[in-house]
Structure formats: structure tokens, C-alpha cells
Design a protein that fits this description.
This protein has 261 residues and is mainly beta. It has 2 domains: 104 residues, Hotdog Thioesterase (Thiol Ester Dehydrase, Chain A), CATH 3.10.129; 136 residues, Thiol Ester Dehydrase, Chain A. Helices cover 12% and strands 44% of the residues. It contains 4 helices and 16 strands. The chain has a 12-stranded antiparallel β-sheet with strand order 1-2-6-7-8-5-12-16-15-14-10-9. It has a two-stranded antiparallel sheet with strand order 3-4. The longest helix has 15 residues.
Amino acid sequence: MIPTLQSADATVARFVCETSDDWAQGRTLFGGAQAMLAVRAMRQWLPALPPLWSLHSTFVAPIAAGQILIEVMLLRQGKTVVQLSARLLDGEQTAAIFVAAFGQSRNSAIQLNPAACPLGAAGETAQELPYIAGLTPAFTQHYAYRWLAGALPFSGGSQPVNRIQLRQRDAGVLDEAHIVALADAIPPVALSLLQGLTPASTLSWSLEFVRHLPPISAEGWWHMDATLLAARDGYCNQDAYLYGPDGELMALSRQVVTVFG
């Protein structure tokens, strides 16, 4: 899915993109795919953007697969940091809003390397979950999953933690936008605590990169540790850590999920 530029001036660019049902999540386009399109549109408009450090997402309304309009706005361009916003539009309706910060490297006295995730052999023996059309979300056909710890969605588990290996099934290489989508590809931990199918949706999502990679093969297995921190009044708060195929921390994720049951 590649956005096509329709018009642009000094501060605003407008894109159109055709999306397909295989990226759907229920009645809307998978949130990670929405974020991926927003980042792609930003980079297509301003190719010289430095690496992405943070992306804040608010999902306003469902947006079905089909033609999507993307409006990108330059908020500020400083000496080292560029901040942009993107709106995904379904006609005149705003479906999602994204605010991204891209930043150049600079000298600093502060350096702290986060702990790596032990790769181990557990994932090699874990069973890969199948894609079942009509049962699992359509977009999951693009990802493979190995459950290492925690309960499967809607199985009535009791532990608020999931440890999952995942990778993109589609061959090729992963760039920055692919990794954004990958970071949103696991189900919310709250779903593992529910007994039976229950509607849920992401209200907001924040992603922070702690390092950057050149385009990398899609064959490698990534790892996510996700924890449900709180749940009350139908709203669930979770955070997650995304580790690269080398076991090094790649990104931090924080999410607010609404559960309708």
C-alpha cells in the first residue's frame, strides 16, 4: 500500500491510497496499517526526514478498506527535529490522527543501553499459530505468531502478561514503516483475559523508537513482551517492548484499549 501524492504546498500535502480487505481488522483497517500509511506519506512528501523517534496515534472512527485520503501537515522544522501530523480521512470524516517526531543524531553525554531480550530456544519449539479466515482478523494473514507465555485471546486467562514472537509473512525487507505496523500487530493483553469473543478497539497508541536499523530481511523473528497495567470502566492500559531479531530493544509501546464486555 503506497500513498499517491495529489497536491502539496509549503505546509500541507494530500495523498490518496487504495487499501484492501486483507488488511482489515473487523470493520476497520488495521491500526498498524493506518500508522504505516501515515509514516509513508510523511516520508514520501519529505524524503530527507531523519529517523522516526516517536509516533502518537489517536483512532477516532472506523475506516473501511478502500480509498483513503491522507492529509500531512508540517508542524515545525527545527535544526535537528521535524514534527509532522497526518490525518486519515474517510470522505470528510477524520478516522485517525498521527503526530510524529523525526530527529537527527546529536552528541550527548548520556548513553544508556537497555537490557537485551534473551533469545533462547523456546521460540523454536513453540507452535506457530495458523491464520483461520473468518475467525482471526484478516490482517493477521500477513504475520506469523508464536505464543511463548500468556493465554491466547478470548481464552479466559489469568495472567496480565503475554510474550510473543512474530514476523512478517510477506517476503522482502522491513523498513521503518513496516516496523511501525509490526509493533501494533499483537492483540491487546486484555483479550487474553476474556472468556469468549468480545469487541474491543484501540483508542490511542504511542510508539517510541530507541534505535534504528537499515532495511532488514522480513524472515527474522521479532519478540514482544506486553503487560496489562490497569483495567477499569471498560478501558485498559498496556505497555509493550519490541525487540529485534538480534534480541536488542527496538521500540516502546503504550496503548489504551476500549473493551465492550
